[in-house]
Amino acid sequence: MNLDRYFARIGLSGAFPASPLKLTELQAAHRRSIGFENLAIPLGEGVRIDSASVFEKLVLRARGGYCFEQNRLFGDALAAMGLVNRPLLARVLLGLEPGVVPPRTHTLLLVNLGGEAWIADAGFGGSYVPPLPLEDGAQAQTDDGAWHRLLRTGERGALGGEWRLERAGPPGATDGRAAPHGDWQPQYVFDLSDVAQDDLEMSNHWTSTRPGTRFTTLCIASVVLADGFASLSDRQLTLSRNGVSEVRQVETPAEYAGLLGDTFGITLGAEEAARLPIFR
Fold first, then answer.
1. CATH code at 28?
2. Total domains, the chain
């Protein structure tokens, strides 16, 4: 971890003392600068989640990544700043019918912040999830007007999760999987069990190779904007700014590559974009 290069990538500099405000500022800068994307999968590159590979891809090559990459990088940066953290595994409920129990295909971070436990998540592609104290009923509002809360819902190891993260806010500031209302909706559930690197490797392998899933059938990108949210699902672009959404189709690989660079903070050449299945 080279903190100077990381800070340059997310547009920040200076010391970051251990405080909720600084953690929130750091995560927001990360999520606005390094786009969420799964393009390594349709490009046949594979997804490596060791620290060196993630740093090289997301920082040095200015690509994006999904949760196993994003939160590896974010966790490494926090550790380099002296903030003890460890990964957790979660089941994503966003867009699923009640009662469905999906696999643990999402990772987030448990952070020790001045002796208090917080969750941080720089790798959730569905919407922006702010850092929250690990307390039943903890809530926070984000710049898109959404509220987020944590609820203690079960015991460690329960299929339904020990903790549930929920969001209530404009559906336009999501990747399109949210229900068309602003009421509370579950995002994911998790518990505090220890997670080994091989647990992450196994979940990452399933996520990046399982046929017929969202990550192996679509080309996906999303990024948090200062005034909203942007997402790409194949060639459909959705831009939500100040509560107003615009949806349009991306026509060419050159337009797609330019959009990734200008809006999503993802460097991908037009020739690489042309190799994506959405342009074949």
1. 3.30.2140.20
2. 1
Q: How far apart are CA 32 and CA 45, in angstroms?
A: 24
Which residue range is the domain that position 223 belongs to? 3-202+216-279
Query: What is the arrangement of strands in the sheet containing 36-37, beginning at the earlier edge strand?
Result: 36-37, 220-225, 228-233, 236-241, 244-249
User: How far apart (Å, rounded) are the C-alpha atoms in residues 240 and 170?
Assistant: 10
Question: What are 30's two structure tokens?
Answer: 């990360």
The answer to whether residue 112 sits within a structural domain is yes
Taking alpha carbons only, the member of 240, 219, 245, 244 closest to residue 230 is: 240
Q: Is residue 207 part of a domain?
A: no
Per-residue pLDDT of the chain (280 residues; tens, 9 = 90+): 999 999 999 999 877 777 888 999 999 999 999 999 999 999 999 999 999 999 999 999 999 999 999 999 999 999 999 999 999 999 999 989 888 999 999 999 999 998 999 999 999 999 999 999 999 999 999 988 899 999 999 988 888 889 999 999 998 888 989 888 989 999 999 999 999 999 999 999 999 999 999 999 999 999 999 888 999 999 999 999 887 889 999 999 999 999 999 999 999 999 999 999 999 8
- Just list the catalytic residues: 67, 106, 121
| Whole-number Å distance between alpha carbons of 254 and 136 | 47
**Residue 159 resides in a domain:** yes
With respect to residue 209, please indicate whether it lies within any of the assigned structural domains. no
CB 89 within 8 A of CB 190: yes
Q: What share of the chain is helix, strand, coil (3-state, %, to 5)?
A: 30, 25, 45
